[in-house]
Amino acid sequence: MLTMFGKRTPMCDRLSRRQFLSIGGLALGGLALPQFLRAEGSSGVNGHGKGVIMIYLPGGPPHLDMWDPKPTAPAEIRGEFESIATKVPGLEISEMFPRMASMADRMTFIRSIVGASGEHYAFQCLTGHTTQNQPAGGRPALGSVLSRVYGSRDPAVPAYVGLSPKMGHMPWADNGQPGFLGVAHAPFMPQGEGKDDMVLKGITLDRLNDRKQVLASFDRFRRDVDAKGQMEGLDAFSQQAFGILTSSKLADALNVELEDPQLRDRYGRGFNVNRDDGGPRLLDNFLVARRLIEAGARCVTLSFSRWDWHNNNFGQAREDMPMLDQAVTALLEDLEMRGMLNDVSVVVWGEFGRTPKINNEGGRDHWPQVSTALLAGGGMRHGQVIGATNRLGEYATERPVHFQEVFATLYKALGIDVETTTFEDLQGRPQFLVDHAKYGPMKELV
């Protein structure tokens, strides 16, 4: 890895940078950022304005205490929270989400998510698939698919950005993998606390151009020995990489200090530290996600807190659920105010639900049999609840919804036909995005 260092120097766009991208594999291994960008421009569909923000709740949120309350169940099942009416007649959710209740007409609550593998990881929420029986190269995340299909909307902003930081339990920190689509479609992940790694540390434009000359020399050498011609066109993508380095657009999108403080207060600030071995409760990330989509990203993933509550379920819920309620509703209102909500899909969920019966430590344990999710935006028909569980919240009794159905629906809203779109895996075999013979877009929504 090569990180550019130097004294603090204003760049041509007057943005003062302390450090910017770590550029991977500068020698014969190639430039990571141009490799990342190369396939983004392959489709030529750079004006497509649709996008998705995926909010992952690491650890498995308790469905009965959120959007599938059971007010008539026994106390050891229904828990400590009351249910409240929403703007949708007949629909009730937990009292922990009063803001969502007031704008439920712009949301869809799915109470019957099935097909969870039961593993503690983000993979299924990012791809729709389990880790078992993957094709050669692995399944790509939704953001990688968008990168491959549509490419970059703006050469200064990556198509796919992942905001989840390192965690004690790293499978929760997964921002998504490109799988058989290749590393060019991996998520761009700002490193360090806040966005401190997104600055260029004191290198002048002359010195930056010197690096470009070195790269050009390596590229000419590689092209001479490249029998398959795979180096053709690399210079253009190297130029894009340096365009990102010398543009303030991405750095600005990541800098919430540029926002109106009143809007930041509407989202809430949260805490920029990981909760135990899970994610941070940094509400600024919800605002950053909107800023990135507005700047040109197509997919942004983020994680919020840690929901593996085997003990003190209700105490932890009283801390985290109001913050989630505030940030999600602020995000939807912000997108709507900017005329983006019909184009941007928002999904909130975790890898599975939690046991209906409260354990001896006041917690709920793992329950992959059923879970819940929230969808909004994307031009879908909202203001409804889909699916139902039995009186105790143990299993789906109406309209089971598989993870892959949610993905098929998101792809449909994003303009991708899951019945016809295929990509070759690393063995050259065509792969569909979902098992479309079983799982299509949800007719209730699209």
UniProtKB/TrEMBL annotation:
Protein's recorded name: DUF1501 domain-containing protein
InterPro entries from the UniProt entry: Alkaline_phosphatase_core_sf, DUF1501, TAT_signal
Alphabetical list of Pfam families matching this protein: DUF1501
Domain of life: Bacteria
